[in-house]
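## retry 2 of 3
previous attempt timed out at serialization; input unchanged, resubmitting
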Amino acid sequence: MFGIFSKKDRCLGVDLGTTGIKIVELKKENNLPVFINYAISGGAGTLLQSNELELLDGQAKDMLGQVLVAGNFGTKNTVLGIPGFLSLIFFVEFPEMPETEIQKAVKFEATKYIPTPIEEVSLGWEIIGNIQEKSVEGGQMAAQSRKMQIMVVSVPKSTTEKYSQLMKATKLDINAMEVENFATARALIGNDKGTFMIVNMGSKATDFTLVSDGVVRVTRNIGAGGQEITRSIMTGMGVDYERAESLKKADRVNLLDNRNEITGMIRPSIGMILEEIKRLQEVYHKKSPLKKIEKVFFTGGASKMKTLVDYFAKETGMDCQMGNSLARIGVEKKYIDVLDSISPELTVAIGLAMRGLDSK
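## retry succeeded, writing output
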C-alpha cells in the first residue's frame, strides 16, 4: 500500500565472473537490505571471458538470459560489477578547489597514469580525505595549506559499452556499474573503523583490496585463482578437471600438513597469493607506518578450500578469517542453510545489490 516492498525498493547485483554468473536480489525492509533471491550459473565447461579478459558477448548474453529465467527475479533494477582486472584505480592529491574544477584536474592528472588516450576511458572520482600541510619558508613554519585526497577509477569505454549492450539485450535497467573491489568491501567491511585486507579468490584471478576506515586505499589483482589450483592437481595426479575439482574440495587437502600429497602439488599456486599478501602488507606499512592491517578477510569460491585460511594465518602471522557477506543484510529463513555454504561466491553480487539500495 505504501510501496515499502515495491520493485523500486529491490535491486539485483549482477556478478559476471570469468566462468559463471551470480545474481542476488535484495529488498529494503525497515531500512535494512534483505536477501530474497539468487541464481548461479557456470562451471568447468563455461567461459565468459576470453584469454585477453574480454567479455564473450554472445555466450555471456545467452548465459545471463538463462540465469534470469531461472531466478525469476522481481525487479530489473540492476547494479553490474566490473572485474578489477578491467579497471585502473589510483590516488591523487590536489590543493583544495571548487568541485567544478576537480573534474578538469582529474582528467589532466589521469593522463600520467593511463596508458591509453584519455578519450577512450570512463573516469570516476571521489574525495576520500583531506591533509593539513605546513610549508617551510626560510627555516620557519609558514601558513598551513589543505590538500584533498582523491581516488580515481578508470574503465575502458569499450568495456562499459559492452556491458551496457549486454544489459540492454537482456532488458535489465542499469542503476550503476561498479568495480568489484568496492562491492566486496561494502559487503564485508562497510564503514567499520580499522584497516583490513580482502582477498577475493575467484576462478581465474584473485583481487586484493586494502580498506582503511571504510575507504578503499589499495587494489591489486593477479592471474591466479581456483582454476590454477585445480590445474596443479590435474597435472600432479593425472586426472580430469572434474576429478581434480572434487579432490580440491575434499578432506584430502590439508595445507598445514607438509606430507600431504595434494598440498605439495598446489603450494606453488597458493604461494603466488601468499607472496602478494606479504608484499601488500609491506607496501602499506611503509606508506602508513602508524596503521596496522588488523584482519585479512577471504572470500570467493576458491577460498572455501579446507585449511586454506588457517594456512595463510600461519604463514603471514596475521589474523585471517573467512569474510561474512551476510553480516550486513537480513536473510529470509528459507535461505539460511544454503547460504552458509555458498555465500563466499555471492559476496560481490551482494555488495552490488547493496549499492543499488543505498542510492535510493
